[in-house]
Amino acid sequence: MPANAISTNVPVLQLTDIRKTFGGITAIEKFSLDVHPGEIVALVGDNGAGKSTLIKIVSGVHPPTSGSIAIDNEIVAMSNATMARARGIEVVYQDLALADQQSVYMNMFLGREPVNRFGLLDRRRMIAETEQLVKELDVRIPSAHATIRDLSGGQRQGVAIARATHWASKLILLDEPTAALGVAETAKVEEIVLSLKSRNIGVLIISHSLDQVFRLSDRICVLRRGRQIGVRKTAETDKNQIVAMITGLQEH
Amino acid sequence: MPIANAGAADRTGGFASRFNLQQYVVYLGFLAIFLFFAVVLRDSGFLTVRNLSNIVLQTAPATIMAIGLVFVMAAGEIDLSIGSIVAVAALAAAVTINAYGLAPGVLAGLGAGLLIGFVNGALVAYVKLPSFLVTLATMGLFAGVSRSMTNLRSIPVTDSTFTGFFGSGSLLGVPSLIWWTVIAVAVGHLVFRESRFGAHVLATGDNARAAAVSGISVPRIRLAVLTISGGLAGLAGLLYAGRLQAAKYTLGETDLMTVIAAVIVGGTLLNGGKGSIVGALVGSLMMGMLNNGLILMGLSVSDQMIVRGLIILAAVAVSLREKNR
Ligand SMILES: Nc1ncnc2c1ncn2[C@@H]1O[C@H](COP(=O)(O)OP(=O)(O)O)[C@@H](O)[C@H]1O
Ligand SMILES: [Mg+2]
């Protein structure tokens, strides 16, 4: 078997029996899910279902109350976002977490700026790597020097995804990446998300648009009030079934 | 499906919309004020080498304070205590020099500035108090301390090594105050523009949450910028003491407004995320030139204050306009 085939059999992310409580509130219970390299898994559910909480558990913001997280078959304990990033997990937050008055390239390297041998910022390298990635992902921005606040919503989202792509070696978590975008911009961002498959990165995406979920995902995981209702292969289900699962008109 | 929102429309714009007035306003303002005084005061000695170099020497302490304030404001904080730190540091240096000699005196002056800055920073970063309130309080507190330290008396500093090094001396024909200014601006610019620390200061002031999720320790940045500001205000205190060969509680008393104006006119945003050390230098020279010219024009002290206040208002207006553009 070629090496590639072996690696795709090992899930990049394996969540087992995750449970999360906030005081008396159970936000997540009995949640188990695998995400494989090059696979896009969509997380759907009503408001308050626990989607964002789940993303925060995987990104190290909230440690789970119980259950295990494995990266490449290795159980990991992540108590903060820095640890998750060190494991190759990147998050595109709902608010994007971009520094608006800084350039695109400074945002790409925010907190991880390379320096030359004099300890000074290696701008040339940051600019070159930004330009290359932006070209590969076809994020249409005027230049790596552009200031974030001069970009459109879609361009900003593109920059945030490009940053995640640059640093993620295993997994990218996207929390409603197109919620604030227009139709054309949404299409562009979806194109970028799809192109992540060829990089062998696992993607876990939250979306409120079922049309989008069906366009992008390989599998769909449905949450309702913190409970995992089920996981379906996108090709083997349809919107009616997913809606029924989300709203509770159908169990299992 | 989400509804297409108007805010997401393409805002890339052309050259005109991206031309940033604020970036150049300090240079244009400097030039305009210079030309104005050069013409109006041509018979009053404004353009003499002696007067112009005097302006530079007189602004040295304010320029040094402005460099610290660029770091503080770029990080989205404010330091109102710098004027009070100047007096405390100068007095601490003067008293210590007279009692224990040069080196302990210099250490006492700088140490006092760094320590007050550190306390400001710790309260802001770790107790999570707003820097405006913390430094407003320490401004008042240390104004009182400097008054009680010496019973409002002026303390002479006679150590000629000290007064030469920090005030009236020169090296290679260049006055020491100019050396201090040049070195502080060069180092400040390098750290602010070309180091990771500078980038993290800007990111913190721009979007503290984004900085934090990117692994930047936002509290450490806040602690650092306020400590730097305190330390540089301490150095400014030594420069005053060296130049005047004495320390008094009044030193630095009126500098706060001048320094804030210099920094804002120089292109540093009040709300953080953007700043310029070179801009602050030019802004500081501009404020110094303004003081000098208004005095030569024969304006009363109260009229000078009014004109300066109006110019600061105009500068803040431009700064905020650009931010909300
Ligand atoms: N930090 C928190 N403290 C307390 N309760 C929380 C916290 N975060 C989320 N919750 C609760 O967990 C549940 C799931 O929330 P969330 O994950 O944000 O849902 P979704 O993203 O699917 O809309 C909600 O009941 C919410 O109130
Ligand atoms: Mg949510």
From TrEMBL, chain A:
PROSITE patterns assigned: ABC_TRANSPORTER_2
Single GO term (MF): ATP binding
Pfam families on file: ABC_tran (PF00005)
Keyword match Ribonucleoprotein: no
Keywords of this entry: ATP-binding, Nucleotide-binding
Superkingdom to which the source organism belongs: Bacteria
InterPro entries reported in the protein's UniProt record: AAA+_ATPase (IPR003593), ABC_carbohydrate_import_ATPase (IPR050107), ABC_transporter-like_ATP-bd (IPR003439), P-loop_NTPase (IPR027417)
Keyword GTP-binding (UniProt): no
Residue ranges occupied by any ABC transporter domain in the UniProt entry: 13-250
Protein name listed in UniProt: Sugar ABC transporter ATP-binding protein
Organism: Ollibium composti
UniProtKB/TrEMBL annotation, chain B:
One Pfam family per UniProt: BPD_transp_2
Transmembrane portions of the chain: 24-41, 53-73, 80-100, 132-150, 170-192, 223-242, 254-270, 277-299
Top-level taxon of the source organism: Bacteria
UniProt entry keywords in alphabetical sequence: Cell membrane, Membrane, Transmembrane, Transmembrane helix
UniProt-listed CDD domains: TM_PBP1_transp_AraH_like (cd06579)
Topology within the bilayer: Multi-pass membrane protein
Principal place of residence: membrane
Stored InterPro entries: ABC_transp_permease (IPR001851)
Localisation: Cell membrane
Protein name: ABC transporter permease
